[in-house]
Structures are given as C-alpha cells and as structure tokens.
Amino acid sequence: MNSLVAPRKWERFFWPIVATGLLLALWHYSVIWTGTKIFPSPLDVEKGMKELAQESLLWAYIGDSLRRVAIGFGSAVILGLPLGLTLGWYPGVSQVINPTLELLRPISPIAWIPVSIIFFGVGDNAAIFLIFLGSFFPIVVTCVTGVSNVPSMFKRAGRNFGLRPAALLTKVVFPAALPQILVGLRIALGIAWLVVVAAEMIAVDSGLGYLIIDARNSGKRYDLVVAAMIMIGVIGLALDFGFRRLEKMRQVRWGFRVES
Amino acid sequence: MTEAVAAPAVTTIKMRAERINMAFEQDGKRTSVLEDVNLSVSEGEFLCLLGPSGCGKSTLLSTIAGFLTPTSGEVRIDGEVVRGPDPRRIFVFQERGVFPWLTVEGNIGFGLFKLSASERQRRIDYYVNMVGLKGFEKAYPQELSGGMKQRLEVARALAVNPDMLFLDEPFGALDSITRHIMRGELLRIWEAERKTIIFVTHDIDEAVQLADRVAIMSARPAKIQQIVDIDIPHPRDMSSRRYLELRDGIYRQIGLAHRI
Amino acid sequence: MKLPRWLRPVAFIAILLAVWQVAIDRHPVHLLPDPLEVAGGIADLIRHGLLLKYVVASLFRVTWGFVLAVILAIPLGLTIGWYSRATMAFNPIIQIVRPISPLAWIPIAILWFGVGDGAAIFLIFMGCFFPLLLTAMNAVRNIPAVHINAGRNFGLNTPALIYRVLYPAVIPQLIVGLRITMGIAWLVVVAAEMIAVSSGLGFLIVDARNAGNRYDLVVAGMVLIGIIGLLLDMGMRSLERLRAFRWGYSEN
C-alpha cells in the first residue's frame, strides 16, 4: 500500500524468516545476558518439545483437549445455531431475549467454574460446559447478525416464488447468511480453544492447559511450559486454518471477497 | 445572446505522452493494456478519452497523472517528465473519492494547507458557491446526494488551482438526468477557469458534448484509434447537423450498429 | 395483554428468576442459591463495603492492562499494516501467539511479576494486545486506495498523509475493535483474579467458595460481573455514535 515497488514472490518467505529469526535471536541472547536460571532459551524449549513428544502423555493430553473442544463447541453449534437463526428471524423474540443474553455474555466462562462444579462435579464435564458457554454466545450473536444482514431483496424474491416462512429460512436466508455464520463459527472455535486451555488449568487434570500448570508446579520446568504454549499456539492456528478451508467451498466462496 | 467561447489562439503543448506501453503481471501472466500510445494535449484544451469499459483508458489516465509508471515510454507535462502525482494536476475520482470524515468545507479546504486561514476560507467560500453547494458547508458527505458529492470532489480539486484536471468517468454513478446537468456545470466551470482537462468516458454523446477533441481508444491492448476534432463552438446544439454528423462518425468508427 | 416494548425483556428476566426461585424451592440443589439469597449476598457485600472495593479493583486492573495494550498495539499495528513487507514478516509470529490463551501466560506472569496486580495487568495486556494489533493492521489495509491516492495527489508528505488521511480513515474500525477488546479484557480480568490476586470480583468468586461455600456470594459476583461488563460495552458503543465517527458506518 505504501511503496510503489510491489513485493516479489520470494519476499513472502524471506521476510517472515528474517523476522522470526531475529526474534528468536533476541530471545536467546536476552536469556544469556540476563543470566536467568529459570527462564528457558529457545534451545531449551526445543529440547523440552522433543522430550514431550517422546512421552506418550503429550499425545494423550492433546487428544483430551481436542476432545473437550469438539464436544463443547459441537454442542454450542447444535444449540446455538437454531437459537441464533430464530432470534435473527423473529426480531420480536430477539428484543425480548437479547438483554438477558447481553447480561450473561460478559461473564467469563471461568467465573462459571464453581457453579459448573455443582452441576457436573470436578472433571471433564465441567470443562466441556465451560467451553460450551464460551462458544455459545458468539455463535448466537453471529447468527442473529448474519440473518439480519441478508438483503431484503433475497427474502422478497423467495416470497415471490411462493416460499413459506420456514422454507424461506432454510432455503434462502440460511444459505445467504452462511458465509458470515462460518466466519463467526471460526471465531467461536478460536474462543473455545482459549477456554479449554484456561479450563484445564483450573478444573481438570489432563490436557494442554493442565500440562502448563503441572510443569510449573512440579519442578519449575519452564522449558516445558513454553513448549506447551507454543504447541497450543500451533494447534490453535491449525484449527483456524482447517476452518478457513471450509470457507473456500464453492457453496460459500461467493460470500468472501477475493484476497489479493 | 450567449457568447461562444473558443479555444485559445496560441496552442502550447501542455502534456505529451510518447510511446506509452503498459503491461501488468499477475500470477505469471503478462497482460498488455496499453501498446504504443502517443497523445498530446494543448493548454486549455478539453480532451476526451473514449472507449468501452476495460479498454485501458483509466490506466492511461492514471499513468499520465503519475499514479502508475509506464512499462516503457514517458509522459511529459510542461516539458518535465512525470514521476508521481502532483498538486498541479489533480485527479477527480468518482464521488467515492471525497473524504467521508470531513465536512464539505473540510474537503474543499483539504489541499489548501499552505495558505493563511483567511485566504483558505475565502477560497472555500468561493468554490462552495461555484459548484452550487452553498448552505451545505457543514454537511458530511454521507448526507449529500451522488451529484452533490461529485460536485464536492470537483470543488476540492479546483480549490488548489491546478493546471490540469483528470476526470475518470466522474459521472458514471449518477443517473442520466443528473449526468446531463453535471456536464453543463463542468463546462461552465471549465470556461470560467480554462484548465486543461482530460476526461475519460464510455459515453459517446458525453464526449461529443464536452470535448474539443475526442481520442477514440481501441480494445485491449489499447492504442489511440483515431482523434476526432469537435469543431462546434459551445453551447452545442444536440440536434444540429454537425453534432449528429460527428457523433455518427464516432459510432461508425467504433463499429456500433445504428439501429437497435 | 400487550406489554410495552421496553417492558418485555424485563418481564422475561423476571420470569426466568421466578422459575429459578421455584425450581430451587421444590428441588433444592446442594449449595446452589436462589435469587433471593443472591440478592441477600449483594446486600451483604454492600454492607461490608466490599462491593465497591472489589469492583474498583477489577476496573483498575482492566483499565491499566487495556490502556497499555492500546498504547503499544495500535501504533505498532498501523505501522505493520501499512508496510506490506512488515505484515509479511510478522504475520506468522502473530498467528502462532494469538491462539494462546492469556491464562496460559500465568506461569510466566508470576515468574516475572510475582503474585499480585502486576501479573493480573500483564495477563490483561496479553489478552488485549493481539486483538488490537490485528484490528489496527486490518483497518489500515482496508483503507480505500482512492483516499491514499487523493492525499498524495494534493502533495501531502508522508507525516501529513498519516495524520490527515490514514488516521481519520481507520478510526471507525479501531473504535469497534476497542469495544470488542474491552469485552475480552473484562473476561480475562475475572479469570486472572481467580488465580493470581487477592481482591476483585474474580477473587470474590473463588474466595467465597473456598472460605465456606458461600454460593450466594459466588452467584452475586457473577451477576455483578455481567452487569458491569454490559455497562462497559454500552459505554464503548456510545463512543461509536458520536457524530464525528458515525460516517464510518454508512454506505460510502
């Protein structure tokens, strides 16, 4: 946008490598110069990662985290999507229910832990409930906005062709809103990934979040802490990427501007 | 009796474009948009670039204005090679070019930062009047109609007293009645200030009504196919024989059917 | 019997509260309070002067963490977004660090700042930094090229271009981003307080439970968190409505 010389193809790889390399070097030398005994250097973290990869426990933990996200997020989609579509479709209903949702939404899922323990006890189900809560509200909000953003000319065309409201919702409004809903789902998945890590740090004893707490508590293994953090980042990114592939499907690709 | 305004007797060449070639590369494919274009414009002249959409006339105009660098060839204005945009030659985009965060006054005064506050205000008042926006000085562009926004953009351009104006299909987004009115306005302004104008359009009538000369461009890769002298003095009668002769000539030159 | 519009959501909430009350009375769930007990809990907090103290503590941390993030992330994000090479360079790092939950930074936060306010503010900062950075980057990249070209056409040098074109053009998007990030900050502060400090609404929840299973206070805390979070959001929305910024939401 600024320079008149357009960047060349090889620069797409060159600059990230340079920047990442510089930051790693900065990290490495900060550790050396400050003489810290606890904070790991990049090499320590790399060794830590290898150590974890060899332990089967790591893969079990990753599996646990993903499983919880799948169930929690999945339930949020199953319950939130219809609710959101209904609220978006019937603005009268939305006007009544929305303030309640707006009051519940700012309450961090973590704040629900004591209550969720009452209902689900300590363990998996409590964590899944938290993930559900964290994803539920964004999904509902996205559906409501998506539906209300469908241009009225589409709805009119549908009615013109004789569609009844239920068919109108499923055959016109839902496909029209789908690109926006998918973006909202992707963001909600990102939130679910954040919540699972947080939930695991507090309420359960397996998973990547738990790994972080455990590594610190039993022996101040900060190299493992940072290694786990990086893995959390990478898996979160992978989930995001995977979801973006969905957005490329031809049924929804029309809804996205071409990225140059 | 309205005075017919004639072009100045002494013609100095204001802009000369020589052997302009413009090719774009995308995804490995090389598209040639302009091929060996030669064009010169005299001082105080009103020149139209005419051609169908996508033929490259906007590219040519952007190149002359200095926003694009030609692949080969050069553009000289007042003898100097053009190296970038300059306040002496202002580009008028379609009405989306006005700054939405500034009022009418703010927009018109935008380029006047080198003047004293009183001088700036004088100019703003003058041009607000000249383009017929009196009373709307404090309005924001979103409160204006399409035609008003277009006039605002012309006022903003004129306020800095440029030598040349480039207009890229400025009336394209307006309805045909408003377009007709705007053409009259533009001619009125041009006759008052006698700037050198290069005007891009795809509307044959518009070109014949406005221009001293019409440069007809071929399809991509574009060349100047022919230059037609419109030797009718202003105000031009759209039913006069000469007008219809010239217009039909252009229709034939472009190869369009005369009956629909 | 048609209720006036504004009354209906209130009625809805009242019905929910009534259902909750009745449900607990009929089938008491161990420890779970009913709405009356929660109200009593709130009154309790006010009586002990804790309500104001805890709310202020939470707001204090949120403000510090949020403001620090704004000061650092917005200029940085605008710069990175402006130079396409910088965007290319930093994007992979940003994309990997972004999905890491702010709470995952707790061990490092405690290592660097010890248990206390500093750690909590750091966590909020980490939670806000990347969303704000990305908002700023996207806002710059979304500026229509016409405006940049027009600015250059009128002879603006780079500092003037930044101040007179870029900055006004990105403000609407930045304000929306600020509102969303404020919501994130509020979520993080509560979580951070449950772990790392000894005051604030998050701490209230944890403490009330640990020191005697005072679930009436737990739920009271949750209700207060919801209300204040909503008020913060409404406050940010009113910023969006100022006339000077409203242009960003209409058809250009």
How would you describe this structure to a colleague?
The complex is a heterotrimer of chains A (about 260), B (about 260) and C (about 250). Chain A has about 260 residues and is an all-alpha fold. Chain A is built from eleven helices and no strands. Chain A has a single domain, classed as MetI-like fold. In chain A, about 40% of the residues are buried. By secondary structure, chain B is α/β, with parallel strands linked by helices. Chain B folds into two domains: about 170 residues, Rossmann fold (3-Layer(aba) Sandwich), CATH 3.40.50; about 60 residues, no CATH class. Helix content of chain B is about 30%, strand content about 25%. In chain B, helix 3 packs across helix 4. Chain B starts with 12 loop residues before the first strand and ends in a 6-residue tail after the last helix. The relative contact order of chain B is 0.17. Chain C is mostly helical and about 250 residues long. Chain C has one domain: MetI-like (MetI-like fold, Orthogonal Bundle). Chain C contains eleven helices and no strands. The radius of gyration of chain C is 23 Å and the shape is globular. The model of chain C has no long low-confidence stretch (mean pLDDT about 90). Classes of the chains: A mainly alpha (about 260), B alpha/beta (about 260), C mainly alpha (about 250). Chains in contact: A-C, B-C. Chains A and C meet through helix 1, helix 4, helix 5, helix 8 and helix 9 of A and helix 1, helix 4, helix 5, helix 8 and helix 9 of C.
